Give the backbone structure.
Amino acid sequence: MTNADSYQSWRERKLARYPRGIDELMVTLPDSHASAPAELDAVHQALQRTNFALYRLVGSGDKASLVRLGEQFGLTRLDGNLCSDDDSVSSIRVVGKRRAGEYIPYTDKPLNWHTDGYYNRMDRQIRGVILHCAQPAAEGGESLLLDHEIAYIHLRDRNPEYIRALMAPDAMIIPPNVQNGEEIRPQQGGPVFSLDANGFLHMRYSARGRNIVWKQDSATLQAAKCLLDLFHSDSPYIFRHRLKAGEGVITNNVLHARTAFRNSAGQERLLYRARYFDRVTGTENRDYAES
Ligand SMILES: [Fe+2]
């Protein structure tokens, strides 16, 4: 499948089975060592349609149960980043003056559209993510989700050159992370869209302008603008959900954003986030080759 016809048939299948509402993607799971086959199947089906599934965990929903949940879906290789806890699972909450406080996720501000780990080295890209809500904020903190395959379709439908531009290995550079004169992460260049070894589409992206240096050619810049326009549109493919305590999302690192929130005494937002070098297993193979 390397031509326009195969793309069109994949596109039609994808859009025809796309859910109309986020309720179709919610699965109730037990907080146990093993979910029933029907529950696993429901999660896999959601991931096949949209690259993410929402779950409602019946039970404690502690960090250990999150790790067990990931294992049931082939997510085992955790990425421990600068801000994660000792078990490589990050506790996302508003923090004061720690290192983590310098990053937007650890504030109550809105979080712009991105995929996780876009600044990682290309051989350490994040393929799977679990985001679990231990406690919601008093107000706000809504999650926005957009399947990156839909973003790909959106761009390719408007101009296939956009895809070619964003698959170029020099499309997007993430500047180095320098704090107090010390470089704690080097500059990282790479494509926005790439295919993994099994032909699955991967996306590395941030809508925060200061985080990105785009290749200065017109196709790349127009493609970046086209993506921003999509995020600011009322696209029916953008799903919104405010995670309740015990709910979470398991994703093949789809595009996501977060609205601002407000904590109150006794009602402070706490999310656990596990990032993996693995993609969720059990999803069908695809082919996104250019026309
Ligand atoms: Fe994220």
